[in-house]
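Project standup — Tuesday

K.O.: blocked on the structure for the chain from last sprint. Re-posting the sequence here as requested.
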Amino acid sequence: MSTEPEIDPDELRAAVRERWERAADGWSRRNARFQAAAMGVSQWLVDAIEPQPGQRVLDLAAGVGETGFLAAELIAPGGGTLISSDGAEAMLAHARARAAQLGLANVEFKPLELEWIDLPAASVDAVLCRWGYMFALDKGAALRETRRVLKPGGRLALAAWTAPQRNPFAGVARQALVEAGLVDGFELVAGPTMFDLADPALLRELLEEAGFADPRVEELPLTIRYDDVEDFIAATCDLSPAFADVVAPLNARQRADLVQRLTLATAPFAAADGSLALPGVALVAVAEA
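H.V.: unblocked you, prediction finished:
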């Protein structure tokens, strides 16, 4: 009986990092529209850590940095510092540019991995992580590392995603590829996925096992808007190299079929002018070290 070959964890981590490096330019291009949709989540996370002047706050898997930048302004008095970090250098480059655009002077930029955070123990007052932990191969290790670098009583606020069917902005695109026979399964690449922490009970359990106290988990709805189906495809290609790798080589017939499938799948969320308002549901959590 044949079995699938095991993928070396280090090779898998490198592949995940390479995908985020490739996605960085697209995330920068789509930042304004995506952040408009995600602002409620970012604001919830920042409010949950209760940032105070003079504190040192770590933003993990920060991408282009928007969530942490909300906290940077609040901690700036008294010499407070935000550490904006990501495993992808290209993401950090865009975050630096965005911070300069916003005129933020109290931000340090540091390449950090979730599973081994290169900071001293008990060196930060709070940690933010919007949609990052799902992509760690060892989520328990990532949360234990977060607990290690937090000062006693410091807070972690994080966001994950609920199940695919509750996030059509992500689910319908993948399902359309499957139904068109362009991919074999819903997950386009090997490795962790954005839905790995969709179970609130699992999220609470992981937080408690990592040493966090009193985790509180909530759901937050959001809506991501697109001009039309073509804009939806372009945005998804920008944010997901795995999706772009399937779509880019399609011939005219295959692409027309994909557009038709996505038009039908997104019809419940379409306005008369063809614009789309695709819903999603985030999980947000806060816990104390």
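K.O.: great, moving the ticket to review. The mean pLDDT is 94. The longest strand covers residues 213-226.
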